[in-house]
Amino acid sequence: MAARLPRPHRFDLYVGLAGLLGGLLLWGIGLGLRPAGEAMVLLPGAWPLLVPLVVMAGCEVLRRAAPRTALLTATAALIMDTVTQGSLVTVLMYTDVMYAAVLYGTPASARRIPRITGLLTVAGTVVPFAVWRVPEALLIGVATGVVAFAPASTGLIVRNHREAAEAARLRAEQTALLAEMDRTQAVTAERARMARELHDLVANHLSAIAIHSTAALSLDDPDTTRRALHVIRENSVEGLAEMRRLIGILRDDSGGPGASPGLSASGQGGIPVAPTLDGLDALVDTARANGLAVGLDAGHGEGLPAPVGLAAYRIVQESLTNALKHAGPGRVSVALRRRDGSLDIVVTSPYGDRDGPRAPGSGAGLVGMRERAALLDGTFEAGPEDSAEGKVWAVRATLPAGEDEEPA
Fold first, then answer.
1. Where are the domains of the chain?
2. In this predicted model, what pLDDT tens digit does every residue of 179-234 receive, in sequence order?
3. How do 342-350 and 379-387 pair as beta strands?
4. Which of 6, 103, 336, 340 measures 20 to 30 Å from 358, CA to CA?
5. Paired sense of beta strands 331-339 and 293-298, if any
6. Rounded to an integer, what is the distance from CA 48 to the centroid of its chain?
7. Residue 370 contacts by C-beta under 8 Å, 6 or more apart in sequence?
8. How far does Cα 216 stand from its chain's mean position?
9. CA separation (Å) from 352 to 127, 192, 317, 323?
10. What letter does residue 45 receive in the DSSP assignment?
């Protein structure tokens, strides 16, 4: 089955029709390129020039749909036109077909056609002059350059400009797409960070409130109820202060003078700084007040990068919260050691065998700790282990801490 030519562009139909009508007008008034008696005119008379004119008009119709076929056919029509009286419109349409062949053709054609026409122009200039030795012979090369090389070169220049503009447009679209992807990733990362902060801030205090409120409701003992209400009040105040701190940071993440004022745990104005390992003693004291028997063994931790100190604090805080909700009776151990440019964190608690936790949880604690370690290129693992004291739940994290410093 023969291949069908692509459908011509509407504008090309108009161009071909305009060329045909223009050529017929010149033919009607008897205007040709050469006199009928000239030696090159092998087909004298007005009628023969109509054949290349019609063929060239058809090539104009295919200039964009089939540029290579149109150029080859147009070249044959131009050669036929040279043995007739010739039509100026036929020559003009050929220059447009040559231009379109470079502009709309394949990249290989766009490279080859200007080279070929350039060589023909040089040959058409040098060879006739070398043979006839008359200045008029140079006009053959000039005519070849005007009819073939000039439109081919123009088409190549326009094509290069279009390709450069298209490449710039694609780069702009790609840049916009990458920017949108970066924005989406930044929003996702920020939402994950906020989720971790909210969980770590609220879970510890609310777990203590839930456990002690359950004890106050379960035991008909005024002293126990009073102690439970005291712990509930302390955790409520501390949790409210932490929430105000986080809200203040979210209002103005710079934390500078223009930050929205919050309330610190002492009730004074200003947003407190993010917790560090210096606050571990207070964190352990709070856990002991909540009913945990906690032992703290914190090694030298000065000079840690702020993100590492915050992550370590949050991992210990969440581990103590989990121990408060899940651990069995016994001692909870917290150990931090800095060595070989890293900070090792180990929190162990008696492995509980109860049916359920003392307080409900979201199940996001381990996920948040693992994310904090991963964001710093650290490691994290948690699970039951066997020890000398029996079965324990162990949380182990290693965070990069920079160069070790000698203690003062």
1. 10-175, 276-408
2. 999 988 888 887 877 777 777 666 667 767 776 677 666 667 777 677 777 777 77
3. unpaired
4. 336
5. parallel
6. 63
7. 380
8. 55
9. 102, 30, 19, 9
10. S
